[in-house]
């Protein structure tokens, strides 16, 4: 027995040995006091789904901080699947993002006050990466459960897209680790504060949707890295 193993309680060693799914959500931004992406993933922290423990990590809505926190979480947890989640307040459904682009073009400052314009996520990186999750199968499963869902072909150019691109770039040499990004709508209480009518979705429904996404991700076999014109996403 190694010194590290002998210093850890048996329950902690068993938890570390159990494969995990990493979920990430963001802190509030843009004047909001809450962020449904974090509330939803936090509700699933510690759950077991298909033999995998769920780990939820909050990322700052910060161009400098989000990438650092994401890389730290990947190193610490060595997940089998990674599902990053963000808020898209004007959307009416669960949006499974298909492609991340190598571009930051912030329409508003991040929570650190930074507002990069026309900057790459990774200098010299490819133009984009596809998600490696089985998006069409997951969308079908969500709709069968009465949850509005669709594949999206634009994750924007704000911190969500940056995290999505950085995630797929970090996993480019790990084809057995499937990953992607999910955008969720406003919560009803957020929609009620907007000056114009916008769609919303209850936290309960968002959490149920993420459980379906996780199950679909775990049911998919490991495949090739996401950047491939012929990759089925």
CATH class: Alpha Beta
The overall pLDDT average reads 90
Which outline best applies? globular
Percent range of helical residues: 25-40%
Largest sheet: 7 strands, mixed
How far apart are the termini? 43 Å
Oligomer: single chain
Element order: H for helix, E for strand: HHEHEEHEEEEHEHEHH
Order of strands, widest sheet: 2-3-1-4-9-5-8
* Total number of strands: 9
Annotated CATH architecture: 3-Layer(aba) Sandwich
What percent of residues are in strands?
15-25%
Nearest-angstrom radius of gyration?
Answer: 17 Å
The CATH homologous superfamily is termed Peptidase C15, pyroglutamyl peptidase I-like
Number of domains: 1
What does this structure look like?
The chain is globular and about 45 Å long. The chain is built from eight helices and nine strands. The chain starts with a helix and ends in a 14-residue tail after the last helix. A hairpin with a 2-residue loop joins strand 2 and strand 3. The longest helix is centred in the C-terminal third of the chain and has 17 residues, at 203-219. Helix 3 packs across helix 8. Strands 2-3-1-4-9-5-8 form a seven-stranded mixed β-sheet, with helices on both faces. A two-stranded antiparallel ribbon has the order 6-7. The chain has a single domain (19-219), classed as Aminopeptidase, CATH 3.40.630. The chain is an alpha/beta fold.
